[in-house]
Amino acid sequence: MVKTIKALGIRAPNAEFLAANVLKNPDTPGEEVRFIVSPGAEAGMEAVARKYGYKAEIAKGEKEVEVRMVPSGKTTEEIDVTGETCPGPVMIVGDKLSSLGIGERLKVKSASADTIADVSAAVTASGSLILNQGKEGDRNFIIVEKAEKKAVAAGTAALASKDRVVVAQSNGIGNAERAYATFIFSKVALSMGKKVTIFFLMDGVGIARKGNAETVKHPAFPVLSQVMDEVIKAGATVYACELSASFRGIKEADLVPGVKLAGAATFIQLLSDPGNAVVNF
Amino acid sequence: MDSTYLVIGLAILVSAMATGFIIFRMQGMHLMAHFVAIILALIATLAAVVTGMTVAVYAAVVLQFIVTITAYTQLVPTLKDSFQTSPGYSAHLAIVTMLPVLALAGLLL
Amino acid sequence: MKYESLGKELIGLLGLKGSPVAVKLAKTPADIPQGYQKMSEKHRHCQFVQDARLKGTIGYATKAEHLCRGGAAVMGIEPSPELLADGTTYQKLGNFKTVEGAIDTVSAIPKTGEQFYASVYAPLEKAEFEPDVVVIVATPRQVLRLSQAYLYATGGRFAADYSGIQSLCADAVVAVRERGVPNVTLGCNGSRKYSGIAEDEVIFGVPIKDLEKIVEALKTFKEKWG
How far apart are CA C130 and CA C22, in angstroms? Predict the structure, then answer.
């Protein structure tokens, strides 16, 4: 966790005294502190940082200056996702970011520029910031700073960003690729901080019948039941269409744990909500 | 024993390789047992046609039965709940269902 | 009571009139200490502090009990009233010559970025919760001692900042809570007029983590200086 202190309006040298007192009396030893000060107040901050064993990184804006005090010797964490294929990199970075505190940074590297672009899209969507990007040798990189997702006022949510993903699955285990895609896309969406609802309908409900997903296995992926289980445990809401289930003689007790029967109205409601992005598999 | 039926069985097994490959891509490793049976039946039938040896013929007949049985045991769980995708499997099922009839015909007629 | 001795020592060492006041911002109703009641009357935050200090009042105030919306807003208890947020009110009240000056000041007022359910108050010696901040209303001489006590262990200079508006709320609670360092503030028109902060009193806000070492330093001063 990076402590952020807004100290706007405080002029030099008082801002410097304030910074010194903060660094001398940390909440947790060695914590990173970010000061937001008014232009001009950053004078002397570098000296304060040095005195207390920190390194000051100063980013000047028009109205605010960010002075980031990083304990000397603390380096930005790095991960190299070269060789990982979609959705691996997005999920690895998503997992890593979820373990970081707000304001902490992560450097993500890959030989593939496309992978870095995909990861950039995912971290931006989850509310984090891309501070820098470029190339070092044969590796493309981005530096990500974890940020809290900004709340959007009700009513404008749909226009600003769709934070919820509905995956409609109507092909069932008869089409393994679509069945896998249902859960792999869901995992990626969850790792991007989106709320995921899976709706099984028509052949799709077959996936939810106990024992069926265990029969689907592609050499490159874990058995389908495992991927489904991971998605349910990660918090996705999973519905099976009541009509499609009864069409196939599937009862609530036949469904894998975590899947609920739902009527057509639930599906229509999910489709009608402008905050939902709908994916069909 | 009429080798005509064996040759037709061989043709069906060759076709089953093609239709099988298509459904293998939809279903994955789950069908492995069935495809091993097709390959073994293909080898045994080819051996029976070429050599005409009784042992080879019986082996071919048994393996052809196994091909049909495994097709159903492996695909029924999928087809039970999958109505829309079932036509994708019909060509393969139709073709391998001919095998036991032809195998018996080869033995008895 | 965890803070009984700290509170009593502070009063004794400094000769305070009234008690240091323990203040906590509670995220949810579950964060309200057990047995604490809602304040019975609507008041300003500074008045709640004064009541705890001088009358020993214990309790908490949600949005409904806060009379000063600006105070409640900086503490995250209610959204900022627009006229306060854009500086217009203070310019009209005569605090600033220009709207730009008002905006500059208003945008720099310490505000918490979080949302809170209520503010909780108790005299420190009776507090049954871990306060975020202790607000001490004291004479300049007493605040001099407190500042000296803060610098006793590691030296340096004391940095105080205020703008003469939103004092006991923004300067003495929010700034102290967010920064983790003490602040001194001189009150605002509201707290001077309505909440009885006297002519000869100023306000010292201190994070709870620093209080023990301040009391220790005050004891040393007492031994040396009497």
Answer: 8
